[in-house]
Predict the structure.
Amino acid sequence: MTKIGLFYGSTSGTTEELAEKIQRAIGADVCDLYNMEDDFDDAEDLLKYDYLILGCSTWGAGEVQNSWREPLFDMEVEKPDFSGKTIAIFGPGDCEGHSKHFVGALGILHDQFKALGAKVVGAVSAADYSFEKSTSIRDGKFVGLPLDEVNESDKTDRRIADWLELLKADFPALTA
Ligand SMILES: Cc1cc2nc3c(=O)[nH]c(=O)nc-3n(C[C@H](O)[C@H](O)[C@H](O)COP(=O)(O)O)c2cc1C
């Protein structure tokens, strides 16, 4: 199925708004939206899709948003097979207030789904961001799309548009 499953976790509603924005940009007819808190039972929900976009804000000090914690733990134990799946990750953070742990959740999702066999795409140059430290950078790029609604909301629409353009290479639904 070339349809995209967009799964997000959000505590105060920011990731939810961004997920809805991304779904509108892609088209609701080709992108199904799931809130990890209410709509997720187990990895089978994700495995229905060959193309996934995962949204997760960062909390604590570089940790994943609460509703992703148990699913990630369960998947670490059960090791569902994500080979053949294409995954892109986005998430909001705070590059000033949490500059030493900027968007740490992206790296956690990236490492886990890659270890489960997924192809993770949509890496973004770190040059467009200012922050002190992030564990979500591999080979000079963020492993997904960082967004920052606290300090740089004016950049969000352009960042999303550029990212979706980049994802066209791997997500057939974006070029249909
Ligand atoms: C207690 C607390 C801890 C946070 N920790 C981080 C962090 O470690 N790294 C980061 O980039 N942002 C951090 N943030 C910022 C949130 O990720 C940001 O506000 C995000 O937009 C929240 O999205 P949500 O409402 O979808 O959960 C933190 C915010 C709070 C209130």
